[in-house]
Amino acid sequence: MGTQLAAQLYTVREFTRTEEDIAKTMKKVRELGYEAVQCSALGPIEPEALKNIVDNEGITICATHTSYAKMQDDPQAVIDEHNLWGCKHAAIGGLPGEYRSTEGYSKFAKEASDVAKRLAEGGLTFSYHNHSFELERYDDGRTGLQILYEDSDPAYFNSEIDTYWIQHGGGDPAEWIRKLKGRAHIVHLKDMAVVGNSQRYAEVGEGNLNWTAILDACEYAEVEWYIVEQDSCYERDPFESLGISLKNLQEMGLS
Asked: Looking at the predicted structure, is the pLDDT value of residue 186 above 50?
């Protein structure tokens, strides 16, 4: 099974605060074996400088996390930056707080569909990254995540399913990925372990998620980019954690 693996730079956000840090981090990520990254939580850097750094390391920017406000207020700037980087997937990291109600989810689904359409006109996809709060069930019997995908325009409003957070919210990551076939261009691969009585982030393959089912679902859904993320790495250096996840995924048959 041929795939495209990438590292979500939020994992190493403590090492991307300056332009110099970003250059060093891109080099280390490339040395681990990753040929692509998702840019998120970077410190101040000009778009051209970022392009020079990734070009020098032979790294593809496969996706970003971009401010929803910027997408709304200046979509052309978002389009221009992504085209400069050769990146077509722009995602947002979560739902703005003012939309977190039954009516709010539906309102956001419709508004964001319009924003996504404008980005699509510039060659980009818009994707929504979930946490677990979207799996709260509301008065109409639907979860917030159901509302987002049922009330949005499937032609423009896409998903960035985060496997850990779906599991954390009591959902089935594989089921959600399958359900969103055609809208699941990018996914976040993140594992969950249990220590004592607490859920903890883990390197992919080191926790308890059903990776056979998840990766089968990704193949079914025709996922384009498999993006490794780990919010906290606890005892390990986050670069080491990214390396372990990459090795484990390669042993699972990904490349």
From this structure: yes
